[in-house]
Q: What sequence folds into this?
């Protein structure tokens, strides 16, 4: 990227930050939530936003224990269906890890098979306690992993061996492999049986893995374990932007009981989520 364009990006974001913090100009905050707000001032290139403010209440940050079925908010629960990958652990860096956890979810959908789902049930009374309403947002930070997912279910030894061989082949040509931007559906469920859903792509694009070369010489580049690392994009959607799928029942955020991620829009992908929760606009 030319130096002038780099300086343009710096001036835009630093000026907006100073206006928002020193002059309390809150109209600048949306730029940090979504770069597209500043499209007129920013150069034409790839951008990724990661945003969280003091209003954020975590539902799951994946660091409370080793149990995959519990949420950070006491009393909540998590369930997974038809997932090829479901684990919690340290989020990797180019070398080592980031010293905090995320959940890794992978799916591969066979023709005619049901979509994989990941459901987080809120603790009883949480929606009222957190004062969820029209101004509330659901928030999650998502990164695409440079990995393949197998079909869900137990594998035979022959299938495992074949998968390992295929994985080695894939790793050998991973630098050339182009992965697509993953898309999935966010579904919200309420205590009175209402539901509403929308695809993530309606609000923001989750980028594929960014691959980068750090050095000019191959011998130096070998010092890095990978040519990519997870880059997180925040999905931050006002609950008011969802519309009830069942028109007979109006969706009421104050009755929210569960959040479901339905992996029905991209055939195969592996993602990492560093946190899921709610905020205020």
A:
């Amino acid at each position: 990227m030319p130096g002038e364009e780099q300086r343009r990006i710096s001036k835009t974001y630093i000026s907006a930050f100073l206006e928002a913090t020193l002059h309390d100009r809150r109209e600048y905050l949306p730029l940090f939530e979504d770069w597209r707000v500043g499209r007129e001032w920013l150069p034409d290139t790839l951008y990724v936003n990661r945003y969280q403010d003091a209003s954020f209440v975590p539902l799951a940050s994946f660091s409370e224990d080793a149990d995959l079925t519990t949420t950070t908010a006491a009393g909540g629960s998590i369930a997974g269906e038809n997932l090829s990958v479901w684990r919690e652990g340290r989020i990797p860096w180019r070398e080592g890890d980031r010293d905090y956890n995320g959940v890794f979810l992978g799916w591969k959908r066979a023709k005619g098979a049901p979509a994989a789902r990941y459901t987080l049930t809120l603790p009883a009374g949480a929606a009222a306690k957190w004062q969820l309403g029209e101004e509330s947002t659901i928030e999650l930070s998502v990164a695409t992993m440079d990995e393949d997912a197998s079909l869900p279910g137990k594998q035979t030894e022959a299938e495992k061996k074949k998968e390992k061989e295929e994985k080695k082949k894939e790793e050998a040509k991973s630098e050339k492999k182009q992965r697509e931007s993953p898309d999935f559906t966010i579904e919200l469920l309420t205590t009175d049986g209402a539901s509403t859903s929308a695809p993530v792509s309606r609000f923001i694009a989750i980028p594929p893995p960014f691959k980068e070369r750090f050095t000019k010489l191959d011998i130096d580049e070998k010092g890095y374990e990978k040519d990519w690392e997870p880059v997180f994009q925040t999905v931050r959607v006002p609950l008011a932007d969802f519309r009830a799928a069942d028109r007979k029942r109006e969706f009421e955020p104050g009755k929210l009981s569960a959040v479901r991620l339905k992996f029905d829009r991209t055939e195969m992908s592996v993602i990492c989520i560093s946190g899921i929760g709610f905020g205020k606009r």
In short: The CA atoms of residues 56 and 156 lie 44 Å apart. The first strand starts at residue 57 and ends at 60. The mean pLDDT is 87.
